Amino acid sequence: MQRERWPTRLTFLFAAVTSAIGLGAVWRFPYLTYKYGGGAFLLPYLIALVVAGIPLLILEFALGQKLQKGAVDAFASIRKRFSFIGWLALFVGFIIIAYYAVVMGWSIIYFFASAGLQWGDDPKSYFFNNVLQISDSIGNVSKLVAALFIALAVCWVMIYFSVWKGTKSVSKVVNFTTPFALILFLIMLVRAVTLQGSSAGIVFYLKPDFAALLDAEVWVAAFSQIFFQLSVGFGVMVAYASFNDKKEDVSRNSVIVGVATVVFTILAGFIIFGTLGFMAQAQNVPIEKVVVSGPGLAYVVFPQALSLMPLAPLFSMLFFLILVTIAYDSAFSLVEAINIAVMDKVKIKREIIALVVCIVGFLAGIIFTTNAGLYFLDVIDHFVNSYTLIAVGILECIAVGWILGADKLRDYVNKVSEIKIGKWWEYSIKYIIPVVLSFAVIIQLMQELKAPYENYPQWAIWLGWASVIVPFIVAFLIPQKAVKKATK
Fold it and tell me: Collapsing DSSP states into helix, strand and coil, what is residue 420?
């Protein structure tokens, strides 16, 4: 059976870039830049892009394209037992999409709420009490929040009809959403940087503190952000690249995707801090008083800032439409990676596989639509991103760098690419990336041992560790069974 193909190279690039640009570009990167030295943070961030980000993209693009297989079969081609790396990557993606779709649902709710600025003068109360209807603790799960449940169902219907026809449906979606999101983004960028007080916010965002460069934590944060941001470790880029012709230019595609994602992310910081600078001036408070990270930035602080703008409903709708679009593209890419891996294994219609994956994903996400959903989301997200996802990256580098042989994959890349990569790429895959990612895990684990994450009860911490350990066990057992059957 002939493998599907992207209709054009541009479509592939659209799919890869929109997969990489997630909500973290809006609510995580600007805050990290502010926290770790302002403009000085851009130096380790850009170094991390060159030393780790683009090399990992090259690894995943080359692996999928050369072998014409999804993540599971691609790693199994290196060594049969290594299929567990592919399964682990897909399990990580599945866990994340289970709650990511709920966050996408928040943005849909806010898009409609923007028409009347329904959060009024108290966006914090609106988010926590009206939208989330949050309980007082993770142990207090008393009801489903109807609006969140409906929004989650809508999100999964959208995801299904994006992936049910494979590259045909995905291509149609990304060929529309990418330029559409870009237009919305540029409108918001122009609006943000022309607001009164925006320049003070942007200066606050980019003002360099070069002393921060002497702090090892800053460099680990930069490498970790690049790793999280480029959608490596989920099996997505391996799967997407498997639909390219074997002669497609790997290194150029990797550079384009990496640079485009980083440029978008840095400019997103201009939107965030330009708007926060305007808000700080309007309220006559220091900018640091309004800077936060995570969901609170997008769903509490930003609605308040948008309410102060001229034409507030319009720009609120534009902002949350951007969030819906970038969340949507990232979400269905994770599902498509799972679909491709299953299709490589069983002869079942793609539509049926996609339907089953989407139904299971919807059911897995229901816990996050309860009144304690935000707590569960916080715990699971923390442990999966801090440990499992990074473990996948380390294992990928070991499998390719030390078992397959980084030199072999580099030879293939140089054979099909105009931009040739040197021995530095091998050193990055074999040494630099595994060491830096291992260091990130050690730092996080040391913090974990000092005090429970966010002072959650012990059973919640064990739930977080279960989200790390269980995927490892299941991913390891699947290839073990396959190997035993193959040797009988």
Answer: coil
